[in-house]
Design goal:
This protein is α/β, with parallel strands linked by helices. The chain contains 6 helices and 7 strands. Bound molecules: S-adenosylmethionine. The site of S-adenosylmethionine (SAM) has 23 residues, from helix 4 and strand 2.
């Protein structure tokens, strides 16, 4: 009777170790939770951890009719360097490059969007005029831009506003649907798309520094 209990315990420990080592890969969270209470176990397969980007704005593409209007209101022309902050599938920089020969840069935090944008640039034969960077728009340098396009959210526009006001005087900014609080736009336009949705386009020019 005395020998049975340690043997049973040993068998249980052995099968538990086998189960932990050979089971399906666990998420990063699960690994972190367990690390405090279990001894490290040799991994036979690498853990697959999917890290989702932290979006400040969900992906909703701008209707092509609105893209055309944004470029028109932004007075976009050949020599411009256009930055789309939160560039989605790349349609704004790609359209500007096709229509005006503009050099374009798209910044998006979601690698899936960057993949799509690069594919679209290839398909449109514009890969030599546009580039797409996977990055957070809040930590990116867009100081070389002559035109900035946005389709973000009111709160995100407001967070971005001090950075926009630091850009070269005369830099043009065009925003789909959302304004900049008490920074009055130079132009505003309302457009209804064929699906009967009303859109707004706002235009600002970075003013000369006041000091
Ligand atoms: C409303 S969509 C606009 C897409 C495109 N500009 C257009 O008008 O078709 C917003 C985009 O911003 C991206 N985004 C959200 N948060 C971001 C961040 N912090 N930095 C860069 N991109 C971001 C999303 O992945 C999404 O593609």
């Amino acid at each position: 009777m005395k020998m049975k209990f340690p043997l049973l315990r040993l068998l249980m420990l052995f099968s538990a170790a086998l189960f932990t080592g050979c089971g399906p890969a666990r998420s990063l969270e699960a690994t972190a939770d367990n690390s405090a209470v279990t001894a490290p176990v040799a991994q036979t397969t690498p853990a697959v951890v999917e890290v989702k980007p932290q979006l400040d704005v969900p992906y909703v593409p701008t209707h092509q009719m609105i893209v055309d209007e944004m470029l028109k209101m932004g007075e976009v022309k050949g020599g411009d360097v256009l930055y789309d902050l939160g560039s989605g599938d790349g349609r704004i920089p790609i359209t500007a490059a096709q229509r005006f020969g503009t050099r374009g840069v798209g910044i998006d935090i979601n690698p899936e969007r960057i993949r799509e944008a690069n594919e679209n640039a290839q398909k449109a034969n514009m890969a030599n005029r546009v580039r797409f960077t996977e990055a957070d728009l809040f930590t990116s340098d867009f100081s070389e831009a002559t035109v900035i396009t946005l389709y973000l959210l009111p709160s995100v526009n407001l967070r971005l506003r001090p950075r926009l006001l630091e850009l070269k005087p005369g830099t043009r900014i065009v925003s789909h649907n959302y304004d900049m609080g008490d920074w009055e736009p130079e132009k505003t336009k309302t457009i209804t798309t064929p699906d009967d949705v009303e859109h707004f386009v706002y235009f600002w020019r970075v003013p000369e520094k006041s000091n």
